[in-house]
Write a structure and sequence with these properties.
CATH superfamily of the largest domain: Diaminopimelate Epimerase, Chain A, domain 1
CATH class of the largest domain: Alpha Beta
Largest sheet: 8 strands, mixed, barrel
CATH topology of the largest domain: Diaminopimelate Epimerase, Chain A, domain 1
Helix content: 10-25%
CATH architecture of the largest domain: Roll
Order of helices and strands: EEHEEEHEEEEHEEHHEEEHEEE
Distance between the termini: 9 Å
Shape: globular
Strand content: 35-45%
């Protein structure tokens, strides 16, 4: 069996930056264990398999795998798959069936190998629980207790399909000082996936409103995490104005040399979050063929 694949760099328009993603565009017929084995072979944070949709009105069905498990939803595979499907068609709206639900992305072609996609969250983020143990958080991240917290934001667990521990810190310099304490990690970040999204506001940066780093999900550090940004929308929405739309630009991956630019959008009506969206660019960095013959 020979399967074509693409390598995209997501949340960037520059090859070899952003968050790398493997895309298998013709994945029908693959068994679950074969998809998992292929994702482990690529050994990227995620691999997305594009299959025929169950509903013919939709563009595709997606299966998303880390090297170790399948995910119901993830942001950078969704953006990467939408750009892949958009580049191979003339469609400006890409409808993708994911385990978390139907995801619709608006696509804009930038050139022959890059595009931009923004998708509405299939599940709005929800607060799960507070994280009051500031000392434990600081020890797990290798920072000071006084570094925890930013403006009105306090640590909490949120999920928009994938669970994240959201940890606001004082400023961007704290992000650069993080040194993971693996002994303390899983006891402190004990909810599903043991993943922490550490973020801060960046009013001194003209191009970005928020800076973040993501640790966990069996990948160490991830350069660009759309599902975590989706969870963060929930925390941002709690402090947003009662009615209206708010837009943010977030940077992630700069400390890794893989800078990502992620756009966030939320809208509230009568103080209730009614809309959330994530967006970014993606570029095809390479392509090849998997030869799976015995």
């Amino acid at each position: 069996m020979k399967l074509p694949y693409l390598i995209l760099d997501v949340f960037t328009r520059t090859p070899l930056k952003g968050n790398a993603l493997a895309v298998v565009p013709k994945a029908d017929g693959l068994m679950d264990n074969e998809m998992q084995a292929i994702a482990r072979e690529f050994n990227l944070s995620e691999t997305v398999f594009i299959c025929k949709p169950q509903n013919e009105r939709n563009s595709a069905a997606l299966r998303i795998f880390t090297p170790y498990q399948e995910l119901p939803f993830a942001g950078h595979p969704t953006v990467g798959a939408a750009v892949t499907l958009g580049l191979s068609s003339r469609a400006s709206a890409i409808r993708m069936e994911e385990k978390v639900g139907l995801v619709t992305a608006l696509f804009e072609r930038l050139d022959r190998r890059s595009g931009e996609a923004r998708f509405t969250l299939p599940r709005l983020p929800q607060r799960i629980v507070d994280l009051p143990d500031r000392l434990g958080l600081a020890q797990a991240l290798g920072i000071e207790v006084e570094d925890i917290g930013c403006d009105v934001y306090r640590p909490a667990v949120f999920s928009a399909g994938v669970t994240f521990h959201l940890v606001p810190v004082r400023d961007a310099s704290v992000l650069g000082r993080i040194k993971i304490n693996h002994t303390a990690w899983e006891n402190v970040f004990h909810h599903e996936h043991h993943s922490a999204y550490v973020f801060t506001l960046t009013p001194e940066e003209k191009d970005y409103d928020i800076a973040a780093r993501m640790f966990g999900m069996d990948v160490g550090e991830d350069p660009g995490t759309g599902s975590a940004a989706a969870a963060l929308i929930g925390m941002l929405a709690e402090q947003a104005l009662g009615t209206g739309q708010s837009d943010y630009v977030l940077r992630q991956g700069h400390e890794m040399g893989r800078p990502c630019r992620i756009t966030l959008q939320l809208r509230k009506d009568d103080d209730v979050l009614v809309h959330g969206a994530i967006g970014g660019e993606a570029v095809v960095a390479g392509e090849g063929v998997l030869d799976l013959a015995d």
